[in-house]
Amino acid sequence: MHGPASPGWLLVALCAATGAYCLLRMRSSDAEQRRAAGDEALMGFGMAVMAVPAGVFTPPWWVWPGYVVLFGAAALRALWAARSGAHHLHHLVGAGAMAYLSVAMTVAAPASGHHHAGTTITGVPALTGVLLAYFAGYVIVAGVRLLPVAGVTGVTEAAGVSGVAGGPPVSVARGWGDRPELARVCRLSMGIGMLAMLLTM
User: Fold this and answer.
1) Residue pLDDT, tens place only, 141-161
2) Do 7 and 52 meet the contact criterion of CB atoms below 8 Å apart?
3) What distances in angstroms separate CA 196 from CA 82, 97, 189, 201, one per listed residue?
């Protein structure tokens, strides 16, 4: 959220790379995967723009109300999609957090005369604390889930990944857009990015 230059650029790079990979995931043959990837690409690029250091680029005041509308609509869409699966609730929280950050930027923009450098962005402390707790927990859980499980890997290799006991190994060709472990890395990266943004409030 327009903090110091070096950490700001690291956050921009992380979020932009995540958004770019999510665009690649949108080429998946699975409709649900494409929908989730689109939501996450929007989050990634939105966070990248929000993290650009103010000394380099300060968006005009109307960008932040536009962000409120955009991510408010994304939150409503995720809420509607949550009827078919609880996994959409994370997208709901993420879009809601982006809308919340955008509201804080909208309130701060007129007071700062379009210059965010040196301006303190503040929100509702209780809501900020709840979002910080959620994303901190999410980052920890997502990180643990990425750890390799030796037992499961060994069983898979012993079975030949064939689905038939004793059968020959079957290679499952998956494109870069269909690798679930990379999708989890993307979500973890965006969780870390959101945590960093919330800590600046």
Assistant:
1) 999 988 876 544 444 443 444
2) no
3) 26, 12, 11, 10
